[in-house]
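USER: If only I could read C-alpha cells as easily as an amino acid sequence. It would mean a lot if you studied the pair and described how this chain folds. Here is the record:
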Amino acid sequence: MAGVAGPMLRRSKADGSRFLAGLMVGELVSAMLLATALYALATAVALVVPAFVREVLLGILVAAFGVADMRNRTPHVWRQVPQKYVRSMAPGRLGLVWGLDLGLLFTTQKSTSLLWVGLAAVGLLSPGSAWFVLPAMALISVIAVVVRSVYWALPKVVDISRPWFAPMRRTLGVAQVGLAVVVMVGAWS
C-alpha cells in the first residue's frame, strides 16, 4: 500500500490523503463484518467446547504459527489486491476497494502470523472482544501504511526496504512459540 500511497502523496497530497482515508474506511467496514462472523462462530464453539480444550487448542495453534514463521512459511494466500484498479479508479474509491479487500484478512499476503494468532485468541478465548480487537488491528495496519507512505514520499536518505522481513518473521516465530508455552502452562494451571 505504501508503494502506491507514497508516490500518490508525493504527486498530490489531496489524492494520497483520499486514498488513505478510503483505505481506512474500507478496512474498518471489513473488520466489522469479519468481527461479526468471528463472534457468531466463536460463541457457538464456546457453547460446545470446554474452556480447557479451547486453551489447549490455542496453544497448539500459536505454536504451529510460530514454527511456520520460524521456517519462513507464514500461511497466507499468494495474492495481492487487484493492481489493475490503480489507473482506473479515483484515489478515494481505490483506497476503499483495497481497504475492503485487505480488511477481510484472508485475501492477501501476510508478513507474519501475528494476525492469525490474534484471530485465534479472540475466537477461542474472548469472542465478545472481536468487535474491538479486529477494528483495532485494522486501524494499526492503516497507521503503519500511513507512516510508511509518508516516509516513502520524503526524499530518500536511507533505503530500509525488505532485508529485515525474514529475520523479523523468525524472531516473531520464536516469540510465538514462547507464548504457546505460556498458554499451555496456563491451561493446565
